[in-house]
Amino acid sequence: MTDSAVVWFRRDLRIGENPAWGNATKDADSVLPLFVVDPRLMAAAGDHRRNQLVAHLAGLDEDLQSEGGRLHVAVGDPVDVVPAVSGSANVYWNDDYTPYARRRDGAVAAKLGDRVHRFHGNVVHPPGTLLTGSGAPYKVFTPFSKRWFSEPVRHAPEPGPAAVSVDPGIGVPDGDEPLMAGGERAALDRLEAFAAVVGDYPTTRDRPDLDATSRLSADLKFGTLSPLQIMDRIGTETDGARAFVRQLCWRDFYAAVIDAFPHTAQRAMRPEYDGIEWRNDDDDFSAWCAGRTGYPIVDAGMRQLAGEGWVHNRVRMIVASFLVKDLLIDWRWGERFFRRWLVDGDVAQNVGNWQWVAGTGVDAAPYFRVFNPVTQSKKFDPSGEYIRRWVPELAELGNAHIHAPWESGPLELAAAGITLDDTYPLPIVDHAEARERCLETYQRARGRAGT
DNA sequence: TTTTGAGTTGTTCGA
DNA sequence: GTCGAACAACTCAAA
């Protein structure tokens, strides 16, 4: 026990229930907590995520100070920085499973040799541990979930007595106000708040006008909470708890899928769907990005993305279906845009869910399932409150008209102070026509693959 | 090896 | 207004 260790924090910015931290502080006499600002990842992150990251780093640094140490922050390519900073120390980290992370970690591990100690701290059941009877990775969610719920879990050990280094490196960079308060304790507060209302989750989860979801996606992205901590707190006793924990299972499913099928980060799971003749119209894409499609629920969602970096899950599906199916724009364009701007932007989850909506992925939605943005809006934002919050120019329209302003009469529009095609856009596509166009396009791709 | 049952989140149409 | 069927066959996972 004269060893020193480095814990390389990446997306596990917490001390509690952290296998790399728990093991390093048990094994070694002294521990250097390291975070490497990777310019490649920072270049792909929008302001929302960058600010959230900085806030979480500051929170972690604060928690380490109460342990008598500091978070050592360095900048550069981790493949160079981690071996340089660690010297001859052992290096501990929790794995990530995207193609980029695996390449990077493989290169670092190759340089460090047997000084590397890798753990799994960001999923409940690590990729590769749940396999079908024939030893293959699952491609269907339901049988995966049955295994997932029945399999015992492994917790991280409690932290040991190692001394924590006080060298802060360059220190935590400055950032603007984050969407969520930074650090592990703030995340635990969010978990407590959600635990109090999880019983309502099955009935309220689809309502973007209510604040009924956990809002823990960014904590899972950055690891200020581990999924095990969440599962332990929420439990699986009630219907609401099970419905929510099932979402953690989806998260593990998509982590396992991108680990087993890394090509899905770039291409469709099913090769025939790489042959879809996307329209990829730049003007349509710009209108979608800017929240000016003329469909209020779509525009509200895209403006929430720009404003907060977070969007309600139901609305993510609606805007994604609209981009891919109504506008026939390549799901990768949407995936890239989401990944940049989402505070919880996570390659495995983002790719998995975009491929689900596009019908191109593992266990995806059938291609002929095309969300109707007006029907969805009426069903899940019944009073139009969510739309009014994010599309204020429509705020004066009544419930009967706010979901489809172009169907309103001139009197209602005038009374609400709206001039279509001026103060608010006309729909950039007719949904019924777009739906037909989508079905034909997908059928052509399938037909070509079959012959 | 073959068979069998099952498959996140919808929409539209016609009776 | 309500309800069931069609959408389209296909792949997966387990028995």
Question: Brief overview, please?
Answer:
By secondary structure, this protein is of the alpha/beta class. The protein is 48% helix and 6% strand.
Question: Which features characterize this protein?
Answer:
3 domains; Serine Threonine Protein Phosphatase 5, Tetratricopeptide repeat; 6-stranded parallel β-sheet; 6% strand; Rossmann fold; DNA-binding; 451 residues; alpha/beta; DNA Cyclobutane Dipyrimidine Photolyase, subunit A, domain 3
What does this protein structure show overall?
- By secondary structure, the chain is α/β, with parallel strands linked by helices.
- The chain has three domains: 4-122, Rossmann fold, CATH 3.40.50; 124-154 and 184-260, Serine Threonine Protein Phosphatase 5, Tetratricopeptide repeat, CATH 1.25.40; 271-450, DNA Cyclobutane Dipyrimidine Photolyase, subunit A, domain 3 (Orthogonal Bundle), CATH 1.10.579.
- The protein is built from 20 helices and six strands.
- The protein binds a DNA duplex (15 and 15 nucleotides) through residues 132-134, 136, 138-143, 205-206, 246, 250, 313-314, 317, 321, 356, 363, 365-372, 375-376, 435, 439, 443, 446.
